[in-house]
Design brief:
Layout: E1 11-22, E2 25-36, E3 40-44, H1 51-58, E4 66-71, E5 74-75, H2 78-81, E6 84-87, H3 99-109, H4 114-127, H5 143-155, E7 161-165, H6 173-188, E8 192-196, H7 200-206, E9 209-214, E10 217-223, H8 224-230, E11 235-240, H9 246-249, E12 255-258, E13 263-266, H10 270-280, E14 282-288, H11 293-301
Parallel strand pairs: 3-8, 3-9, 6-7, 7-8
Antiparallel strand pairs: 1-2, 1-4, 4-5, 9-10, 11-13, 11-14, 12-13
Helix pairs in contact: 3-4, 3-5
């Protein structure tokens, strides 16, 4: 899927230092998002990490306990939020209303004239492969088609920003492709897109940048290439007709493991490894593994082991 994107460094929507507590639960702790024109940003984290709470605060559905939200570098207003298309995880459609009437209705609610709303609706239903269901009620649609209608509702007023909470949940591959193309087309026209998803392969395929949140805090943030560059890529080596080389490889690499088929090496002297395996058997694979977004996510949320307790009376370098 290759749609040319016109992205810039212009910040459209900026959330800074958001905090939110529900009783004793600290749901958000100093969360910031910098959403730029024409960029697609993935917002990923485990269930309960704070993604939905952040989106609801950005949209004004929830009030934050601290922090700020700006739109084009000024405090966001209710009129600004009308320029943001929001797709909550819980769908908000009228089940007995016809699809075309419903999408046009939401366009009019956003301030469009009736004829413009109808024209935009027809275009969107064509793009989302729903034209043949235009006169059907939402309740007669599959979940996937209902989500397409929900996306059409988000897009009908031609928003400047899209904020989508799990838009691909439960969709079949064809529906995923249709909705993905619609989002990439908007990004190519300069629309800012933020979406959350547990489908990390999809996040990697669609997104320019990714924010990872865990326990209410942002633990990784950046462009996809930058995030991948932070992870040490292991050297994957496959050699046939050779004895177990683990012991010898440990002499030329910091860390050696075997996934049942290949040796995976970190901190390797690749020239020494190459020389060793070529002398030991038939080399069939020798390349550095590029970490995936899923790999980066797992590494980012991995708990840090606590430091071992010092014996009584032992001090650190400061003497404290």
């Amino acid at each position: 899927m290759s749609t040319t994107r016109v992205s810039t460094n212009e910040t459209v929507l900026l959330a800074e230092g958001l905090s939110k507590s529900f009783g004793d639960l600290r749901a958000l702790d100093d969360v910031s998002l910098d959403l730029k024109a024409g960029q697609v940003r993935g917002f990923i984290g485990a269930n309960g990490a704070g993604k939905t709470t952040t989106m609801r605060i950005v949209m004004g559905v929830l009030a934050s306990d601290g922090g700020s939200i700006s739109f084009h570098r000024r405090p966001i207003t209710p009129d600004d939020r009308r320029r943001v298309g929001y797709m909550p995880e819980e769908r908000g459609l009228y089940p007995k209303m016809k699809i075309a009437d419903q999408v046009a209705f939401f366009g009019e609610l956003a301030g469009m004239g009736r004829s413009d709303a109808k024209a935009a609706t027809a275009e969107l239903l064509e793009q989302l492969d729903l034209s043949h269901r235009a006169k059907d009620s939402v309740q007669d649609l599959s979940l996937g088609n209902q989500q397409r209608v929900q996306l059409a509702v988000c897009l009908v007023a031609d928003p400047e920003v899209l904020i989508l909470d799990e838009p691909f949940s439960g969709l079949d591959p064809i529906a995923v492709d249709v909705m993905s193309k619609a989002l990439l087309d908007r990004a190519a026209r300069g629309v800012t897109v933020l979406f959350s998803s547990h489908q990390l392969d999809l996040v990697e395929r669609l997104c320019d940048s990714v924010t990872i949140i865990s326990g209410g805090r942002v633990i990784a943030d950046g462009t996809v290439p930058d995030l991948k560059a932070r992870e040490e890529a292991p050297l994957r080596v496959r050699v046939e007709d050779a004895p177990d080389l683990t012991g010898e490889l440990q002499g030329v690499a910091r860390e050696v493991s075997n996934d049942g088929k290949d040796y995976l090496l970190k901190g390797a002297d690749d020239r020494a490894v190459l020389s060793l395996v070529q002398q030991s058997g038939h080399l069939t694979h020798f390349a550095y593994d590029q970490p995936s977004i899923a790999d980066i996510f797992r590494e980012a949320i991995k708990p840090v082991a606590p430091e071992p307790a010092r014996p009584a009376g032992e001090h650190d370098e400061t003497g404290r």
